[in-house]
Amino acid sequence: QQQVKQSPQSLIVQKGGIPIINCAYENTAFDYFPWYQQFPGKGPALLIAIRPDVSEKKEGRFTISFNKSAKQFSLHIMDSQPGDSATYFCAARDLSGSARQLTFGSGTQLTVLP
Amino acid sequence: ETGVTQTPRHLVMGMTNKKSLKCEQHLGHNAMYWYKQSAKKPLELMFVYSLEERVENNSVPSRFSPECPNSSHLFLHLHTLQPEDSALYLCASSQERGGLYNEQFFGPGTRLTVL
Nearest 10 degrees: CA dihedral of A105, B71, B114, B38? Predict the structure, then answer.
C-alpha cells in the first residue's frame, strides 16, 4: 500500500529530447506528489510538485502529468539539456492525519547527451 | 552556512567502532529527519523529530541511535554497524507549522562505508 513504483531505472536521451519518467501508486490516501532532483554529491532537491485535483502542472521545462483514476503520474522534461543529467525521484505523501512520511520511488538516472 | 549541512561527508568505520553523524539546519525549521539512501532503492525514512521530540521511528535497528538536542541540530550515533549499513545517510528538515506541504530540504549526505 505504501509503495511508489518508478520506471525506468535509467534513461539516456539526446539534447533536446523529452525524457519521461513514470510513477504508479496504490494508496488512495496519497494526495501530494513531489518530484526531487539529485545531482552527484548533493542531497535531493524539490523540483516540482502536484496535488491530485489538477491533471497537469508546468514549471519552466518541467511538467507533471497526473492521472488520478489510473493512480499514475509522470515527469516530462522539455528540451532536455546536459545539465538536466541527474537522478530523479518521485514521491507521495499521505496528508491525512499527522502523517509526515514521504514515500519515495526507487529513482531514475537520467543522462542527457550533448 | 545556509540550508542543511552534514558532517562528515565521508566516513569509513569498522564494525566495532562508534561514530556519530551530525546535521545542522539553518532554515529555522522545527522538524528534522534521517534517511538512508542505498543504490537503486527508494529513500528509507529512519527517524523524524518534531520540536526536538522523536515522533517516528521506522523499525530501525538499535545500532542506530538518533539525538536531537535542539531544533537546529540532529545527530545519528552509530555503534557496531554491519557492512550492509554502508549507504548515503541524508538529513532533511521542514517547517511543520504553517506551510501545508511541509517541503523537506535535504543536506548533501554522509557517505558511510562499514568494513
Answer: 0
Q: Could you tell me how far CA A54 lies from the centroid of its own chain?
A: 15
Half-sphere exposure of A38 (CA within 13 A, CB side): 26
Please check whether residue A21 is in contact with residue A109, taking contact to mean a CB–CB distance below 8 angstroms: no
Cell numbers linked to A86: 541527474
Are B50 and A100 in contact (CB < 8 Å)? yes
Chain B residues near residue A107 by CB distance under 8 angstroms: 40, 42
Q: Are B62 and B81 in contact (CB under 8 A)?
A: no
A72-85 residue pLDDT tens: 999 999 999 999 99
Q: Give burial (CB, 10 Å; 0-12/13-18/19+) of B69.
A: exposed
CA angle B16/B90/A101 to nearest 5° reads 115
Q: Is B100 exposed, middle or buried (0-12, 13-18, 19+ CB in 10 A)?
A: exposed
- Asked whether B5 and B92 are in contact (CB, 8 A), the reply is no
Do residue A9 and residue B107 have CB atoms under 8 angstroms apart?
Answer: no
Q: What are A20-59's pLDDT values in tens digits? A: 999 999 988 888 899 999 999 899 999 999 988 899 999 9
